[in-house]
Amino acid sequence: VVGLGGRCCCESGKMAAVQLHFCQGSVETNQQDRAVLVVGQLAHLHQLAWDQVRDTLQPRVNEETWKTALKSLKPNPTDTCPLWLNVATVAALPSKVSRHNTPSSAHFLTRLVRTCLPGKANQHVVVVCERTSVFASACAIARAFPLFSRCSGQSTPSESQKVTAEFLCLAPDNEPLSTATLMCLSSVAESIRLASRIVDTPCNEMNTDDFLQEIKAVGSEVGVVPVIIRGEDLLKKGFGGIYGVGKAAESPPVLAVLSHTPEGATQTIAWIGKGIVYDTGGLTIKGKTLMPGMKRDCAGAAAVLGAFRAAVKQGFKENLHAVFCLAENAIGPKATRPDDIHQLYSGKTVEINNTDAEGRLVLADGAVYASKDLKADIILDIATLTGAQGIVTGRYHAALLTNSEEWERACVKAGRNSGDLVQPLVFAPELHFSEFSSAMADMKNFVSVSNIVANQFEASADTRFFF
Q1: Is 73 helix (H, G, I), strand (E, B) or coil?
Q2: Helix (H, G, I), strand (E, B) or coil at 32
Q3: DSSP letter string over 256-317?
Q4: For the purposes of burial, counting CB atoms within 10 Å of the CB of 71, is it exposed (0-12), middle (13-18) or buried (19 or more)?
Q5: What does the alpha-carbon distance between residue 193 and residue 139 come to, in Å, rounded to a whole number?
Q6: Helices 359-372 + 452-465 axis angle, to 10
C-alpha cells in the first residue's frame, strides 16, 4: 500500500481543511466511517472484477448489489447509482467524448466528485480508467476540493476531511501506479489547489504584497530567491505598463521573477502571468454587474506560480523563468486617466483610451523583459485577458494564439492530456496593427470593435504590438 498526500494549506483553521492523498491499494481507515465513490466509463466499470473493489466496498456492499447497480447505469452524459444510502456510490462518466474534449472527461469527473461525496470526515474515490487518463483525472479530483473558505462553520484542522484517491488502470497497461507517479500526482494536485486558493482569495487578503509572499514561499520551497522590482522602482527602470496600471492602489505594483536554471539546459522558457489582484476597470470603471468576481483577474499569475512549483519539483531540465506582473487596477488620485501616455519597457509609447484594457499593458512589460533580459527562446503568457474569450471559445476552452504551429499542436495536446482544454484562434496580428494607430503616441491600447472575434484578437495581438 502506497499513500502520498499533499499539504492542507490551512491557516490557523481558517482555510477549508481538506487533505488530499493519492494511493495505490487499500487504505488504512475505518471502512464503516468512509464515504466511497467508484467512477469511470460504463464499459470500464464492467471490466472490473468484483475482487478489485471488494475490499473498498465491503461490508456495506456485496457483489450482487454491485452488479445490479452497474446494470442500472445509463449515462447521458453521466449517471449515478447509490450502493448504500448516500455514502457508497458508483458513477458512470460519458461513454464517448467529442474530438475537442479530453478523453478523460475531466470536467464531468470534477462535478461527480463534488456531488456524490457527502462531506464525511473520510472519503475515498476510486477512478477506473486507462493509464493515459490518470494525470487528467488526478487534476480533476484536485479541482473538486478548493482550499479557500471563510464560512464560519468551517472545520478546524483537527476535524479536517481526508480524501484518498485510487486509480484502477485497465488492461493492457494495468500495472499499479509507481511511487514516482503518485508523487507527481500529489505535487501537481498541491499546485492546482495553491493556484485555486490564490484566485479564490479576495483582494482584502490577497493584494500585491500578499501575492508576493506566496511567490516567496514557493521560491523558498524549491530553493529559488525571487527577483523583485516594486513600486517606484518600476518607473525608474522603465516598466511604465505595470506601474501605470497599479500606481493608484494602496499596495504597489510588482514585477517578480522566479528562475530555475539547471545545469545542462539547452533552451530558456519564460512563463508570464497576468496578476491583476483586483480590476475595478480603473477610471473606465466596470459596471455593478461586471465588477464582482474581478478578484479572479490574477488567475494567470496564480497558474504560473502553481505550474512553476510543479515543474521544478518534478526536475524540469530546461531553464524556466516565471514572471509575475502584479498590480491592482484601482481608482484614486494617482490613477491613470484616459488620454494619459505611458512609456513601456520596450521604449514604445502608448496612449491610454481605456483603463479597463490593462492586462495587455502589464503583459507587454513582462514579455519584453523575458525577451530582452532573460533571453527566453519560448515565451508563454497566461491571462484572464478579455471577456471576449468566453464568447469565442466558451467556458471550458482557453483561447490560444501563437506564432508557432508546432507549439499550437503541443498546447492542444497538453490540454487534452491534462483536462485544461485550449482552442487555437487565428494568428495574423499584422492585419490589425493599423487599428492601434494614435496621433499622440506610438499606439493606443484599445480599439472599439463590434466584431467579438476581432475584440478577442486585438487584446492578444496588442501584447505583440507592444514589443
Answers
A1: coil
A2: helix
A3: EEEEE--TT---EEEEEEEEEEEE--TTSPPPTTTSTTGGGGGHHHHHHHHHHHHHHHTT--
A4: exposed
A5: 9
A6: 40
How distant, in Å, are the alpha carbons of 33, 44, 120, 323, 394 from that of 272?
45, 40, 39, 5, 23
Asked whether residue 219 carries a pLDDT value surpassing 60, the answer given is yes
Residues 6+ apart with CB under 8 A from 185: 4, 22, 134, 135, 138, 177
**Angle between the 134-143 and 179-200 helix axes, to the nearest 10 degrees?**
30
pLDDT at position 466 is 54
**Structural contact between residues 229 and 239, judged by C-beta atoms closer than 8 angstroms:** yes
CB-based burial of residue 428 (10 Å sphere; 0-12 exposed, 13-18 middle, 19+ buried)?
exposed
* CA dist 184 → 124, 126, 141, 181, 190 (Å): 19, 18, 14, 5, 10
Q: CB neighbours of 189 closer than 8 A, spacing ≥ 6?
A: 6, 20, 22, 138, 139, 141, 142
Active site residues: 286, 360
Query: Do the bridges between strand 227-230 and strand 341-343 make them parallel or antiparallel, or are there none, so unpaired?
Result: unpaired
What is the model's pLDDT at position 73?
A: 98
Q: Which residue has the cell 504584497?
A: 209
> Are the beta carbons of 73 and 90 closer than 8 angstroms?
yes
Pull the grid cell for residue 320: 524556466
Residue with cell 456531488: 115
Half-sphere exposure of 9 (CA within 13 A, CB side): 23
CB hemisphere CA count around 212 (13 angstroms): 19
What pTM does this model have? 0.93
Across-strand partners of 398?
422
Sign, Cα dihedral of 8, 14, 15, 17: positive
- Is it the case that residue 153 has pLDDT exceeding 90? no
Write out the three cell numbers for 103. Answer: 478523453
Q: What is the bridge-based pairing of β-strands 2-5 and 18-24?
A: antiparallel
C-alpha cell at 212: 508576493
Tell me the three cell numbers of residue 454. Answer: 476581432
**CB-based contact 286:331 (threshold 8 Å):** no
Residue at 328: amino acid letter? E
The amino acid present at 389, given as its one-letter code, is: Q
The mean pLDDT of 65-89, rounded to a whole number, is 96
